[in-house]
Design a protein that fits this description.
Bound molecules: uridine-diphosphate-2(N-acetylglucosaminyl) butyric acid
Radius of gyration: 21 Å
Helix content: 25-40%
Shape: elongated
Strand content: 25-35%
Length: 421
């Protein structure tokens, strides 16, 4: 088991390269089940969720090779249509194999994911979409068993905009007979990227990037290559680290368009930002950061995956701020831990009411999930003295060696082996 030991108080300075997006790669990878051939995905981050998806695909018969951020997936010999509990319990995104397996092989047996670290996170929308496309769905011993001879195009109107359900429905619809229209589709960059990859395999999709996707099913798809998008959440997390430590940092391999609102909120906090297509620079030296409220919402709104990090930021600025999460109403596991470092935060329904304190003080805190852990690392960077962040396996699921990136920017952060749990 590893932990981070952080000595706070250093203003970050320098340039760092952002890794490829975890959540985009996790959608691209299972889509290769729709073809028979060798697919190449570049700019893939070396994080544990990617290794979990590789193992799952491998179990289904996909031969995978991962070197220098290049993932080669050969889907020629699929031997199984079962996603076992062993993998799904580790990572909910395993459910992404449902749509492609069902569409291509007429059957998918996928373990139900169960709850996640902060709440229930249902998959009802994924299942309803498969049913509308003509699948019969049963639940047996904790497994979803979905069957269909040939899926038929349908109108899918999602009550809630869901990244996962849109991705799954899209992967099923591209091989369904006839037309499928998805309304209230997720328009997150990860879904746009998936749709573009499917098009390069031969799929027929209109409305990419919008909330209405129109798909004309095709009989078969061919293998393809794709360059994965940069990780907007990793970039945003590092930008907040720069702002919190009143540093001056520059990030390469980013897509600043994916971060429009985050950039604006950082500017509202007083930081100076400049950017072009693939670079973002932030200068927060000699700035007294200001309190800025945020409300998370679907893209292009403020991402829920940056709510915890923003809360951490606001905990040390002068004044009060309100952080509201409209995507996950109960994603606040980081707050008791931030409080251990001296933050003053109250939870009221789906909002965190933050009263900024002059300084945080180092302590031992515990990671509970990926983004909560990131918020604790950020707090450790500004806390007086030493902060130890335990259970950083949560961070390793989604940030590629974050400590190395922070070290490159001058932070005093070390990964240390520990017996503590
Ligand atoms: N929802 C339902 N029913 C469903 C599916 C979703 O009610 O069948 C609800 C969820 O409970 C939530 C809302 O819809 O309230 C949106 O959830 P969504 O389906 O969009 O989330 P997801 O696809 O399960 C992805 C990311 C998450 C990110 C969310 C929201 C991946 C692998 N995961 O999850 O990323 O928080 O979208 O943007 O893409 C993370 O990286 O830390 C992470 C949790």
């Amino acid at each position: 088991m590893d932990k981070f030991v952080i000595e706070g108080g250093i203003a970050l300075k320098g340039t760092v390269e952002v890794s490829g997006a975890k959540n985009s790669a996790l959608a691209l990878m299972p889509s290769v089940l729709l073809n028979n051939g060798i697919n190449k995905i570049t700019n893939v981050p070396e994080v544990n969720d990617i290794f979990t998806m590789m193992k799952l695909l491998n179990q289904l018969g996909v031969a995978a090779k991962f070197e220098n951020q290049i993932l080669t997936l050969d889907s020629t010999n699929i031997t199984s249509q079962t996603a076992p509990y062993e993998h799904v319990k580790k990572m909910r995104a395993s459910v992404y194999v449902l749509g492609p397996l069902l569409a291509k092989y007429g059957i998918a047996k996928v373990s139900m994911p169960g709850g996640c670290a902060w709440g229930p996170r249902p998959i009802n929308l994924h299942l309803e979409a498969m049913k509308k496309l003509g699948a019969e769905i049963e639940l047996e011993e904790g497994y979803i068993i979905a069957k269909s001879k040939k899926l038929n195009g349908a109108r899918l109107n999602f009550d809630i905009s869901s990244v996962g359900a849109t991705g799954n429905a899209l992967m099923a619809a591209v091989l369904a007979k006839g037309e499928t229209i998805i309304t209230n589709a997720a328009a997150e960059p990860e879904i746009t990227q998936l749709a573009q990859f499917l098009v390069s395999m031969g799929a027929n999709i209109e409305g990419i990037g919008s909330n209405i996707l129109e798909i004309q099913g095709v009989d078969e798809l061919k293998s393809a290559d794709v360059e994965n998008i940069p990780d907007r959440i990793e970039a945003g997390t590092l930008l907040i680290a720069g702002a919190m430590t009143r540093g001056k940092i520059e990030m390469t391999n980013v897509n600043s368009k994916h971060l429009n609102l985050v950039i604006q909120k950082l500017e509202d906090s007083g930081a100076n930002l400049s950017y072009n297509n693939s670079l973002i620079a932030l200068d927060a030296t000699n700035i007294e950061p200001k309190n800025v409220d945020i409300t998370t919402s679907v893209y292009p709104g403020f991402p829920t995956d940056m709510q915890a990090q923003w809360t951490s930021f606001m905990s040390i600025v002068n004044g009060s701020s309100k952080i509201t999460d409209t995507i996950y109403l109960d994603r606040f596991k980081h707050i008791p831990e931030l409080t251990r470092l001296g933050a003053n935060i109250e939870i009221l329904r789906n909002s965190a009411l933050v009263k900024g304190v002059k300084k945080l003080k180092g302590a031992t805190v515990m990671s509970t999930d990926l983004r909560a852990s990131a918020s604790l690392v950020l707090a450790g960077l500004v806390a007086e003295g030493t902060t130890e962040v335990l259970r950083i396996y949560h961070l390793d699921r989604g940030y590629q060696r974050i400590e190395e990136k922070l070290q490159k920017l001058g932070a005093r952060i070390e990964r240390v082996k520990t017996q503590e749990f």
